[in-house]
Amino acid sequence: MDASQRITALEDVPTDSTVLFRVTDGSDGEREAILVATENGDDGTDGEPEEDRLACWLNYCQHLTHIKIDKGSGAPMRNGELVCANHGAYFDADSGVCTYGPCEGAYLTDLEVTVDDGDVYLTDDDYEYVGAGPVDDDDDLSSSSNVKI
């Protein structure tokens, strides 16, 4: 595996939240992605490959794509689903499908990951790993609304 594409250790992926990191597709700067443990083979003893225990998604809600699911401290989860805290949409952690909310039926954008020797690597042909944590927004504390006046 390419060490520059290592996201984290498998054991450091929480079962009740997400790991936030940055990626690039080489054309439009950095984007955020989230790594989440799924309910497929929770304990790794079912014979499934370790990467089947994980899913990776671009970090934005399908309802309003400027809204982040993980705002920097881990995404909320409930019963194996990611929760968009802005408007309550639920996304299945395994498939990325929105099961409830204004974007019901839409899917999160997936990224490919692989587990090798206990570490998780980004192996998606369209994206490269940049680093851990959120995209630096230059500490812009301004507020904006979804409502145009």
From TrEMBL:
The keyword Iron applies. GO terms for molecular function: 2 iron, 2 sulfur cluster binding; metal ion binding. PROSITE patterns: RIESKE (PS51296). Transmembrane segments: none annotated. The keyword Iron applies. Pfam families: Rieske. Residues 21-122 form the Rieske domain. Keywords: 2Fe-2S, Iron, Iron-sulfur, Metal-binding. This is Rieske 2Fe-2S domain-containing protein. It comes from Haloterrigena gelatinilytica.
